[in-house]
Amino acid sequence: MSKVIETLERAQLRDNIPKFKAGDTVRVHFKVIEGQRQRIQVFEGVVIKRQGSGARETFTVRKQSFGVGVERTFPLHTPKIEKIEVAAVGDVNRAKLYYLRGKVGKKARIRELRQDVVRAPKGAKPAEPPEPEVAESDVSAEPPEEPAE
To answer: Which of 7, 88, 90, 104 is the least buried, fewest Cβ under 10 Å from its Cβ?
Structure first.
């Protein structure tokens, strides 16, 4: 019986989800249905947590709106999410950022991971330095051969 449920859940998974984790700033484009009208509403904030797995996976986004903290939990694989954009990658060492609930203003900021610096995963060997390039003075004085036509 569980095989039937697994195949149904596998069919509901989305495939265009960007990689993001707790601490990242994301823009969630969410479909809002008001009567007969339908529009896209953007919710931008910091991901506090991701939990669950498979079709039941959810993530919680927190933002400050007019000085009040607002949190919203989205199912990751719902068809109501139009798209998810990662605005900034946060440099955090926790999976759940509940401590942000007690912080306001500048204290609630998260350090942004710079894109030009790539950190090696824990336990990885340090990268070997690149081979030194050959200086132009070391190259022979012969002119390069021209292709025969």
So the answer is: 7
Q: Which residues contact 98 (CB under 8 A, 6 or more apart)?
A: 48, 49
State the Cα–Cα distance between residues 32 and 130, nearest whole angstrom. Answer: 52
Q: Which single residue is written with the structure tokens 């025969």?
A: 148
CA–CA separation, 128 and 15 (whole Å): 36
DSSP 35: T
Give per-residue pLDDT as tens, 13-23: 888 889 999 99
**What CA–CA distance (Å, rounded) separates 9 from 48?**
25
Helix, strand and coil percent figures for the chain, each rounded to 5: 15, 35, 50
Residue in 75, 70, 109 with CA at minimum distance from that of residue 91: 109
The 10s digit of each residue's pLDDT in 38-90 is 999 999 999 999 999 888 899 999 998 888 889 999 999 998 999 999 999 99
Residue 86's Cβ-count burial label (10 Å; 0-12, 13-18, 19+) is: middle
Length in residues, the chain: 149
Rounded to whole angstroms, how far apart are CA atoms 116 and 138? 32
**74, 28 contact by CB (below 8 A):** yes
Beta partners for residue 68, in sequence order: 65
What is the mean pLDDT of the segment spanning 115-144?
A: 64
